[in-house]
């Protein structure tokens, strides 16, 4: 009804403007052009007695000009709307009229189209719908573009609330660059803030130097306004959990990246952030929900400034979107775990070359694993509800994923359970807030396995289509880009968690990456006749199976008949469309596909009447649903060209064999420093011990199996120390030693576990300050070029003109201060060298390496124990997910994990050789805490239990291992061999 009234009002207004005004002018004023006598009077400035000329000529002529200024743009918009095109709005004088005309036209169109609730959804299929026949255009896929584009234009924008320019109160650590990033998303716009604040400040001083602003100053932010508070919509009855409580990233072994929390602020790529008058209703329609832009208070400024660089790109430069990137990195993490599990002591896994590593860094900045989890949880929540209540799953058109919501668009009105919220009166649009949908308590099938991301919209959201519902999607336009879209879609199906049961057949995509990602889901065929034959058989088999359950389609079956079947769809991706009779056979099958769970995606000429994606460039494409209403523009997701080759190289790295490590080279930082004393920053207090002769590593390993046969090697007892006031690693009850500091409080950064820093004021340190210092310290060079810092910490803004590193260094320099001798802890950068850092600032990784030394087999026992006790958990643990923060850490994290496991292995076998089972167990649990999914740490504790003859301990640790790695996981050969040997060496084990 609302759309009907809106459309009727728009039609009346258009009629009044286009017809009523001219009619009134002709009736009242007639010909608006002056006669010859009147022109003469006007030119000679003859007095116009009675204002005859003014009211009968000049004023009507002005009204005619104003009328034409609206009528002409209206005709332009009308012709464009009828042709399904967008119009440029470059002329400022006509931009307002064009927007008004477009809105009125759209409102009228929606009224006649029937609104969102009548999106040309197909009627329930009858038995005849499955008979062989030609493709019926009337039964073509749903008119999705109208739901996305026309409804947006039909919405009347809300009245702008009263606005007031933002005034920022400066706090310690603020810079104009940071303020420009915070409010504009572009640091180089600091000049605008500088020029707007040249007056006298409250303290009597003036802003004269852009590098110097003082706490307490009031700075006006030009062009940024705070809206007056608007009454909030009623809150949901169940409060939304905080991200810390509910949002969990997918469980993969890929190092978790820091991603945007909530809506990203200023800058591109962050989605619909604060400051927009309306929220975006999925892929087009604005939601009648007030959004209030608030000025950060003084207490909020430091946190806001820390998050100033949260404008996360939605795609890589080549066009891979964040959801797919998360899947690719998850698959990469699984392969790297396999590398680590195959690695033996003294080796390091292969890592990518610099160019490939740069792409991985970019991917880690773009990935959106939280969005993937939110979508999967939302879909499976809906599935569990349908199963529990006997409800039929609604037919899904599309999903839009943004920072602040996951929006579902349905083909027909439906009522969904909590935590879904209806966002439109016709009940076809529903949203769920991030973290509100939790994974069901029990396993469920995925209700929409064919949901895949085709790209991003102009409002900063990911656009996902249910290809099973569409039936047939044809991708046309630029051949290379279209092929890149098919590659990306195939990889989506290979990595999406909700596509776990899908079957995808590739035709003509011999170079597809997807096949290498998942050989169970993805298949390639070259025999088209066999494919057609198999598809026809699958269709008949699916029809018979559905009939046996008395259900009409796969959606109904997924909620009512999942006892032995998941009803997974079969997607056929055709890079080359067959010709002749094979094409006709496929077209015939497409006509039978609705509701049977089979869909096709074809490149080039349409295989059958259906939805179409027309690609014009790597940045522009349009989705056409087959109707006459305007198409949906979007940026396509593509995986092609150089970026595809780099991704291939990235995965190929994981197939390379591990290589022997040169510890002297790996610990090169020690040589770069000035004769450091024995590590004292985090030393474990031990008693004076005499040096002991060490057994060779191989001898110690052999003795582990039979301690009585080995020469005893004494391991000095460690004096008990007071633990730091923090919890131990979850994987084991490990006593963490106290930390000794030097005579003067040099900053000390701990990375071998939860990241923190000692001897610094953490409240004063900027958000990326510790990361900046850690990066400098871990480069193993006396100085680090500023360009390298900028590239690794801010890969999305890397250029010679950006100075994020300089600004952050300036803040840190002031906070860190000087040593007792007056030397700055963070000296100013040098043009020929870059950044340097005081040689007394260290990390626990430096101390670990110095204690281990260049040859692990000759490391003194005392040093080995002290090094192991520096480890508090997984390296770089506890980092928040924020964009590119710490994204560079991947290679050094792999090095740290390997070094920790090697040291733990060495200590375990030395301890077992002398019967020091407690020391062996300590080392094993340290190894587990550093790499939970790696069975190497678990094997060390299993060996310890076997050497001690402790059956109960053996059973306990094996159970704990399977709980972590998975009961159904395929364990390593070395682990299996160890478990097999245990039955011979532990007599009481067989009776378990």
Number of strands: 23
**Span between termini:** 71 Å
Beta content: 5-15%
Give the helix proportion (percent range): 40-55%
Give the overall shape, derived from the CA principal axes: flat
Radius of gyration: 34 Å
- Strand arrangement across the biggest beta sheet: 8-9-7-6-11-10-19-18-17-12-16-15-13-14
Structural class: alpha/beta
User: Total helix count?
Assistant: 32
Largest sheet: 14 strands, mixed
Look at the structure and give the mean pLDDT: 75
Low-confidence stretches: 113-143, 149-161, 228-310, 670-742
Describe the structure in your own words.
It is built from 32 helices and 23 strands. A hairpin with a 7-residue loop joins strand 18 and strand 19 (632-636). The strands form five sheets. The chain has a 14-stranded mixed beta sheet. It has a three-stranded mixed beta sheet with strand order 22-21-23. A two-stranded antiparallel ribbon has the order 1-2. Helix 1 runs antiparallel to helix 3 and helix 30 packs antiparallel against helix 31 (951-965). The protein has 992 residues and is of the alpha/beta class. The chain is flat, with a radius of gyration of 34 Å.
What's the arrangement of secondary structure elements?
Elements: H1 2-29, H2 36-43, H3 52-83, H4 92-113, H5 144-154, E1 163-169, H6 176-184, H7 190-195, E2 218-227, H8 243-246, E3 278-281, E4 285-290, H9 298-306, H10 322-342, E5 347-348, H11 354-366, H12 369-389, E6 396-401, E7 406-410, E8 421-422, E9 429-432, E10 451-456, E11 462-466, H13 467-470, E12 472-477, H14 479-495, E13 503-507, H15 514-517, E14 522-525, H16 528-549, H17 554-560, E15 570-574, H18 581-591, E16 598-603, E17 611-617, E18 620-624, E19 632-636, H19 641-653, E20 659-660, H20 663-666, H21 669-672, H22 697-705, E21 748-750, E22 756-758, H23 769-777, H24 786-793, H25 804-816, E23 842-843, H26 844-852, H27 861-869, H28 890-913, H29 917-930, H30 935-948, H31 951-965, H32 973-985
Parallel strand pairs: 12-16, 12-17, 13-14, 13-15, 15-16, 21-23
Antiparallel strand pairs: 1-2, 3-4, 5-20, 6-7, 6-11, 7-9, 8-9, 10-11, 10-19, 17-18, 18-19, 21-22
């Amino acid at each position: 009804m609302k759309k009907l009234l809106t459309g009727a009002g728009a039609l009346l207004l258009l009629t009044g403007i286009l017809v009523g005004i001219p009619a009134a002018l002709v009736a009242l004023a007639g010909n608006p052009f002056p006669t010859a006598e009147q022109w003469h009077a006007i030119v000679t400035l003859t007095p116009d007695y009675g204002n005859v000329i003014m009211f009968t000529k000049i004023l009507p002529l002005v009204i005619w000009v104003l009328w034409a200024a609206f009528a002409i743009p209206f005709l332009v918009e009308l012709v464009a709307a009828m042709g399904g095109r967008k119009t440029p709005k470059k002329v400022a004088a006509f931009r307002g009229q064009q927007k008004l005309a477009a809105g009125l036209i759209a409102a009228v169109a929606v009224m006649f189209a029937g609104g969102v609730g009548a999106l040309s959804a197909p009627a329930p299929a009858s038995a005849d719908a499955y008979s062989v026949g030609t493709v019926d255009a009337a039964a073509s896929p749903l008119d999705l573009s109208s739901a996305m584009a026309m409804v947006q234009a039909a919405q009347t924008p809300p009245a702008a609330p009263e606005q007031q320019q933002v005034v920022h109160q400066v706090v310690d650590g603020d810079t104009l660059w940071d303020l420009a990033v915070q409010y504009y998303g572009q640091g180089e716009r600091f000049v605008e803030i500088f020029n707007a604040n040249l007056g006298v400040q409250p303290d009597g001083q003036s802003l004269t130097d852009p590098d110097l602003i003082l706490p307490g100053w009031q700075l006006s932010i030009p062009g940024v306004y705070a809206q007056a508070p608007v009454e909030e919509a009623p809150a949901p009855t169940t409060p939304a959990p905080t991200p810390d409580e509910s949002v969990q990233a997918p469980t993969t072994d890929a190092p978790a990246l820091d991603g945007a929390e909530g809506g990203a602020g200023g800058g591109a790529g962050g989605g619909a952030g604060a400051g927009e008058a309306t929220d975006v209703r999925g892929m087009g329609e604005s939601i009648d929900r007030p959004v209030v832009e608030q000025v950060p208070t003084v207490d909020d400024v430091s946190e806001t400034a820390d998050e100033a660089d949260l404008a996360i790109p939605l795609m890589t430069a080549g066009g891979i979107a964040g959801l797919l990137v998360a899947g690719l990195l998850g698959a990469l993490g699984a392969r790297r775990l396999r590398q680590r599990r195959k690695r033996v002591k003294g080796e390091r896994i292969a890592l990518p070359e610099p160019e490939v590593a740069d792409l991985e860094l970019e991917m880690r900045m773009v990935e959106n694993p939280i969005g993937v989890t939110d979508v999967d949880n939302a879909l499976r929540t809906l599935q569990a509800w349908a199963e529990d209540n006997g409800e039929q799953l609604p037919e899904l058109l599309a999903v839009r994923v943004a920072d602040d919501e996951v929006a579902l668009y349905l083909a027909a009105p439906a009522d969904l359970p909590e935590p879904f919220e209806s966002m439109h009166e016709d009940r076809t649009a529903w949203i769920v807030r991030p973290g509100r949908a939790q994974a069901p308590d029990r396993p469920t099938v995925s209700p929409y396995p064919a949901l895949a991301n085709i790209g991003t919209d102009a409002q900063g959201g990911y656009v996902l289509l249910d290809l099973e519902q569409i039936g047939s999607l044809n991708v046309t336009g630029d051949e290379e880009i279209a092929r890149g879209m098919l590659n990306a879609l195939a990889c989506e199906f290979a990595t999406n968690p909700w596509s776990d049961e899908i079957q995808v057949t590739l035709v003509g995509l011999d170079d597809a990456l997807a096949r290498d990602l998942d050989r169970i889901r993805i298949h390639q065929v070259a025999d088209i006749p066999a494919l057609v034959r198999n598809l026809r058989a699958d269709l008949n088999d699916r029809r018979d199976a559905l009939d046996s359950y008395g259900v009409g389609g796969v959606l109904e079956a997924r909620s009512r008949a999942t006892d032995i079947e998941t009803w997974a769809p079969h997607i056929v991706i055709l890079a080359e469309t067959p010709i002749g009779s094979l094409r006709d056979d496929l077209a015939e099958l497409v006509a039978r596909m609705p509701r049977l769970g089979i869909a096709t995606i074809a490149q080039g000429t349409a295989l059958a009447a259906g939805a179409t994606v027309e690609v014009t460039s790597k940045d522009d494409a349009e989705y056409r649903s087959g109707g006459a209403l305007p198409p949906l523009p979007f940026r396509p997701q593509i995986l092609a060209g150089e970026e595809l080759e780099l991704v291939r190289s990235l995965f190929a790295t994981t197939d390379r064999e591990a290589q022997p490590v040169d510890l002297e080279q790996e610990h090169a930082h020690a040589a770069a420093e000035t004769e450091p004393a024995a590590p004292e920053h985090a030393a474990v207090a031990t008693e004076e011990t005499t040096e002991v002769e060490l057994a060779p590593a191989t001898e110690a390993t052999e003795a582990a199996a039979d301690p009585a046969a080995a020469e005893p090697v004494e391991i000095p007892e460690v004096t008990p120390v007071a633990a730091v006031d923090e919890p131990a690693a979850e994987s084991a009850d490990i006593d963490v030693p106290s930390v000794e500091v030097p005579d003067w409080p040099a900053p000390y950064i701990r990375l071998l576990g939860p990241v923190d820093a000692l001897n610094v004021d953490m409240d004063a340190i900027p958000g990326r300050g510790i990361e900046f210092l850690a990066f400098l310290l871990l480069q193993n060079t006396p100085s680090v070029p500023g360009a390298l810092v900028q590239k690794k910490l801010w890969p999305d803004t890397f250029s010679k003109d950006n100075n994020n590193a300089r600004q952050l260094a300036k803040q840190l320099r002031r906070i860190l201060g000087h040593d007792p001798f007056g030397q700055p802890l963070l000296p100013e950068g040098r043009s020929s060298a870059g950044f340097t850092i005081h040689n007394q600032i260290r990390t626990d990784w430096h101390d670990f390496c110095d204690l281990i030394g260049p040859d692990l087999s000759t490391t003194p026992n005392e040093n080995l124990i002290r090094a192991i006790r520096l480890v508090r958990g997984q390296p770089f643990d506890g980092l928040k997910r924020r964009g590119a923060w710490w994204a560079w850490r991947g290679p050094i994290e792999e090095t740290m994990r390997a070094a920790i496991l090697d040291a733990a292995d060495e200590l375990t076998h030395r301890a077992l050789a002398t019967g020091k089972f407690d020391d062996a167990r300590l080392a094993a649990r340290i190894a587990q805490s550093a790499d939970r999914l790696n069975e190497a740490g678990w094997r060390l504790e299993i060996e310890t239990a076997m050497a001690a003859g402790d059956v109960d301990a053996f059973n306990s640790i094996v159970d704990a291992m399977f709980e972590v790695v998975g009961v159904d996981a395929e364990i390593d050969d070395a682990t299996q061999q160890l478990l097999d040997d245990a039955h011979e060496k532990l007599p009481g084990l067989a009776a378990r």
